Each structure stands twice: as structure tokens, then as C-alpha cells.
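Thought: the user wants the 3D structure for the chain below. I'll pass the sequence to the structure tool as-is, report back what it returns, then summarize two notable features.
Action: structure_tool
Action Input:
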Amino acid sequence: MMKSILAVILLSASFAATNVYAQEVYWKKQNVDLQVTGAGSVSSVNTVLNRIVITHNYYECGYYEEPQVIERTGTCYEVKCSGGAGRSEAWDAFYSARKAEKPSKLAAAIKGVGKASAEALVAGNYFSSKPRSWDSFKSEITAAANSGAITQQVKTMVLSTYRADNMANLGYAAGSCTSVPYSCQEVVIVQEGYYVPRTCDDSRETVIDTKVLNVTMDVKGAVLLPSEVDKVSVTLSGAISEISVSQGIYNNYSAHVAEVNGNSILLEIDGAGRRQVKMPENALQSVSLIPGGSHVTLQVGVAPFALPVVPTEKSIVEYTVKTCAVGFFGSCGIGWDKTESFYGELTQATSLFDAPIKIAKGRNGIRMEVDVKIYKQNSIYHDARPVSRTTEKITIK
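Observation:
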């Protein structure tokens, strides 16, 4: 996509919290699907294309990883404070942040709270209003822990392990505080939480121009069998140089604008080379065995497209004859007694091939089964990957 860049801005993962803007202007593209047969295809479409400006609003949206902790029997602290109304830059940043940024800002404000805990607190509508005292803050954290929004470990880290940091950072350290120790399962920090920087983009799209186009698409030169239909996608744009065509299943294509008359365009799409594909599974339609004395005849039925289409092409059949002597209990035992492969060519929709019997009959005859594969050689249409089927087992008395 060719874009006219109006502003290029280098961003760093550690840039300041101030939002950074960039703009780009381009024609918004539209895709039109076409079906192509061997006779070609002519199709017309009327479309409205928009030229847009995207304003990128980049902002820092990093997050804090949760600290890694262990628990042990130790001492926790019950803190009571008077004074301090929760006036702090950390709270201001949280309450002024857009919805998407709130978990990150809450994790930055409360030490001991990481990404997962912050997201759960915001989703649970905790701290919907600012706690005006340490006791109010403690009540909110305790309620979140009791409801399962955060773990008891996180609660202990916030209110005990990091109590001094949080009191200072959240504006509750003013006045007098008392700390009463008590025995508890103390949370010990093994690894501190850390900040993971990330840049997010809150983009806005505005239409600044509109163009109505009538496009006639003329497809020629596609190499296709009568049974094949190619599917391509034409990409349209208000900028003629950006109009393009995809490659098909069976053919490569190229496109060029042959004629422009006001808002009308003639787009010529030319086949640019056939792709070989595997023959469809229904190429081999039937296989069966016809008993006849000391020999068995293999009958193979194929679809018309499985036969040679041009003189240089060959349709090959490879068949593997598997036989065994049926014993006293009416079975062959483990596996087949003899397996042998043969080759032939397919020249008509139903072809017959000899499946010789080269073992002596058992007490109850001979059992036979044939694996059949067909594939093309020297074909511009199909590659050499085979299509396979297996006959039903027959018993020859």
C-alpha cells in the first residue's frame, strides 16, 4: 500500500506519558471477487472509494509484572493513620486515565499490585472513587481479597510488606500513624515486580475525499479445463497505480488499466502462466475386480479431466495386486502372501487391466485386493501427486 506520510515520529518504549500523534493519508482499498472460466470473464462493478486520514494517538500502555513471593510464619503490621486525604500524583494519574490505561496506572500507583491484580480490581469496579483515608484504602483492598479479585498474598504485600511505600505514594502518610505488629503468614518478596514498557495506538479515521468508480474487468488468457473455475480477487483503489489482482488457484494473473474515461476504468486481467495442481479426488471414480479363470480383470473408471488433454500428456495408472491363499479357517493368516505392482496408461473413461494370480490356490481359494493410483505425467494442468482408491476384496475359488 502506497501511503503519503505526513508526519514521521520515532517512538521509544520509555517515552513520557504525554500522547504522541502521527498522521497518514491514503486511499482505502476494496476487494472484488471474480470467478474465471476457460472462456474468460467480463464483469463490471460500481464502487465508492474513500481517501482517509488516520491520526495515530500513541501512548505508553506498559504494565507491571506481579512480584514473586513466598510465605512464611512471621510478623505483619496493622496500620492506623489519622490525616492524609489521598492527594497524590499517582491517584491523579489513575483517575484521569482512559479506560484502557486504568489497570496500568493502578499497578503503578499501588506497590505490590501487578498486571493481573490491577485488571481484576478495575474490572470489579474497585477504587471507583478515591479512598480519602488509609482506613478506606485498606477496606477496599480487604474487600477485593475477600471476594477473590486479588489474592490474600497481594493484600498482605499492599497493606503490610509495602505499607510505607503505599502510604507515601498514595498521600496517606501525613498526620500520625501507628503500626501494631501481629503474627501472620508473612509475604516475603523473592523478586520485585517490574515494569514492562509497551506502546499502544488509539487511532482515529476520517474521510477527506470520495471517488465513485465504474470498473469493467476483462479477464483473458486463463488456462483452465472445462471442469475448473478460477477465483481471483481484484483490489481497487482511488489511486489507479495501486489497482492489483491476486493469483488464482490455477493461474497467475497480471492486471493493467487499459482505458480511463472520467470515472470509468477498463481493467484488463491477463493469465500469466498456469499452475500445476493435484488432480481432484473425484478424478478416480471407481475401481473393481472382475474374476475370470486364472486371471482377474481390474476395471478403472476416471473422470474426463483425468485423461490426457494434450498430446504430450500421459495419464498413468499404478496398481498393486495383493493375493493370499485362503486356509482351513477361511482366512489368509497374517498379511498377504504376494504383493506385486504393475503400470498402465489411461486412454478412456473406463479402462481394463490384467491383475494376474501368481500363487497356488489354498484350501478355500485365493483372496485378492488391489490398490490403485492414478497420476499425470508431462501435464501443464496437474502435478504428479496421485489419487488413490482400493478395490473390495474378492475370493477366487
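Final Answer: Structure generated. The first helix runs from residue 89 to 96. The CA atoms of residues 286 and 301 lie 5 Å apart.
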